[in-house]
Amino acid sequence: MAEAGRKKLSQPAVTPELVASHGLNPDEYRKIVEFLGREPNYTELGVFSVMWSEHCSYKSSRVYLKTLPTEGPYVLQGPGENAGVVDIGDGLAVAFKMESHNHPSFIEPYQGAATGVGGILRDIFTMGARPIASLNSLRFGAIDHPRTRYLVAGVVAGIGGYGNCIGVPTVGGECYFDACYNANILVNAFTLGLVDKQRIFTGLAQGVGNPVMYVGSKTGRDGIHGATMASESFSEEKEQRRPTVQVGDPFTEKLLLEACLELFQHDYIIGIQDMGAAGLTSSSTEMAGRGGCGIEIDLSQVPTRETGMTPYEILLSESQERMLLVAKQGCEDAIKKIFDKWDLDAVVVGRVTGDQQFRAFWDGEEVARMPIRALTKEAPAYHRPAARPAHQDQVQQLDLATIAEPKDFGAALKQLLAEPNLASKEWIYRQYDQFVRTNTIVAAGADAAVIRVKGTAKGLALVVDGNSRYCYLDPYVGGVLAVAEAARNLACVGARPVGLTDCLNFGSPENPAVMWQFAEVIHGMRDACLALRVPVVSGNVSFYNETDGVPIHPTPTIGMVGLLERVERFATPWFKAAGDVVVLLGRTREELGGSEYLKTIHGLTRGTPPWIDLQLELAVQSCCIEAIEQGLLQSAHDVADGGLAVALAECCIGGPDKPLGVRVEAHEMIRADALLFSESQSRIIVSVKENNLERLQELAEQHHVPLLAIGAVGGSRLAFQPLLQLPVEELRAIWSNGLTARLK
Amino acid sequence: MRWGVITFPGSCDDQDVVDSLRLDLKQSVEQLWHKDELRGEFDCLVLPGGFSYGDYLRCGAMARFSPIMRGVVDHASRGGLVLGICNGFQILCEVGLLPGALVRNAGLQFICRPVHLRVEETDSPLTRNLKKGQLLKIPIKHGEGCYFADAATLESLRKNRQILLHYVDAKGKATPAANPNGSLENIAGVCNEGRNVFGLMPHPEDACNKLLGSDDGAKLFASIAAAAAERAKRHG
Predict the structure, then answer these.
(1) What is the pTM assigned to this prediction?
(2) By the CB < 8 Å criterion, does B34 face chain A?
(3) ipTM of the predicted structure?
């Protein structure tokens, strides 16, 4: 076996078994040998294993991700960096991204979720942006599964523990329970930061001889091979993989955040990158890859938490709260001074080279030498086999004639509101600081969160959303609807979308059925992004979300950011005053396939998801936004899971004040249960003062949007004539306790 | 008047206090760093919320040893005004400027939500602009905000009318249901015997603008500003 450099460091021999245990297949190993012109040593094998892992290389998804629209007039930075950046005017830009931390959160919920938040925060502030708001999208197993309560409590406490301590508000999110996540939960964390357009930093290494500096926490043995673990499926023994979960220290991250933001005021650095998945290895090689240069690291200079760490461990550690930066020569001392103020390490550990190699040294000995391109651009990319699964036709079969309508529609509505998926999520979000940084205008619980941008007249709206039932039944339509609903949520608060980030959570890419789902979802997202004119600026793929061969439902989570030109012109979902006219924008059709009603009341996840006309969708959204901008609306709320009846109930009871009643009348010639619970798309319930109704009607006409005045706000009951009539106080009690009662 | 807002390592709400004082109350504010000695004259020093030193030990237990705290104690002993919010309240209890202690919430969870407060005493700089019995709506956000004091301390707090704010319901009643964290007798804010040092768990800086849901917090800051102006007149 050939080895780089002198043979001082004793390393295990590279055997086929060792290669396999690093998650590399024989073909991939042959490719490594080709790149190196020799066999790799143990340290190099470790580096290849993480850099070629699914998590770091996107080897199964890259060919599909390239098809997403990533450009737009305001996009300053698209995918490929630590986060996407979009211009919002006034000399400012927003950087945002979403990332998954699924596997660690299942193994150790508190630390897994906490470090997920820590990681996404670093992705944002490494761009030079101050994080100002976070969201999260959570998927747990069935509420009555024995492990669910423990996981929910741990994940929520972990997100709060990290986000609260670092002083970034968690302003919203979503949470959904389904048995398909029993043994593979999803924790997707989103953060948005604000940055001066002229001072955006990127993960770039350039300028031969420039020093490479390590800042932040010391390196420990935690998280070694986290990226590789995230690229494997779960089996029961994986629960014993706790040592591969990193441990978070939000206090140190807070210091690192403030120190970095202070550093960014000066022109001391060329580039900077978070040491996230695959730690020092990925940050150094990716920075060199973007700059088209080489990089060398002296591992003996890396600050370590414990003695006796090997080069292999130092390179692969995923210890948190660390950053790598390329300084301008001569600025080292000025940089050290800033980090010294915040009691953090800042050490020169290497330099930029011109040889396009990644070289690592240990006590003067070269322990690794690999071409940068082999670790980055030329990492394997696969066109994996994809095939529509045989059962797809079967799950889409739904004969409504065999589904009996409930005898008591009121009881069905109550059952839906008590269901944890539709009930109030206050138990979760009250554990998050939603107000720090004093920007929060609409916090968790509305269609989207709204924050102000200090120093400007503007506001930002943020949402995360996804519906895996739809994606399971028809992944193409599911992909379209996920994007459409996120944009509709923004429209309901009065914001126009400026960009999108995603977390694509799927089963194993080696399963052709999963690969088919992935391809279909991406295709759907692409079509919706083009029609609604929303560019994808960043994202993340999480494969291998399956246990013992059973994949989760395909779950693309969409994070979308919208802009309000005048922040005081926003809307909330809740009815405001008796006498206001209740108006439905859009039409209700008999679409019960994949509905929450079918799942909760009839125990079925079947049929085809609702149909959508993207041109009508855009028109409905534009109409709603313009009506809010013109000050016509008292409230606006998207009709989604649970249909019109649940949406109306939310308008009555979801607000912070005393609930208000409503009286509406049924109109469509469709089944009564469909009228109440159909999930037809492109619908928004708005309320208006009577004297504004005419102007709203004119606006709807201009946009060719169907409009129906269906009733009026008032009284103490939700009356959906002639189908049901229930006291709103009772509905609020059921809805408020639905989740809490099940978590006790 | 001159405000000084201290940043400890791990302070989160320091900038929020500064922004609210500057933007909403048009006050002059200086930002102070915990490693520095306190220099210059201030009418009121603010110890903001957050997680000083990560609060990995007991909340506020490390921050009380920061170099600037010597100056804070001197300032208070000369009758200068000191306001501790949330973590700042915890630090003031740790350093002995305020009686009692703040322990883990009764429900064991971090809680973030707007609460109602009832003003109990108006002869303190923090509450002088308000009316006795007036209700304020201000958010809390803490995991360790359960106020505790032994019987003798509680007795002297009562006797000296040092309890300034209680947690109440929307109707102004100090019920157990309105107590978000298990605080002794629904206590949300207290002052020292000299009535120049105040601590409260709710965050007035988060409630200084109607756009954010409430401007009741601004009323507390405005009270302090008015008190400082009067003192300046008296001494001037």
Answers:
(1) 0.95
(2) no
(3) 0.96
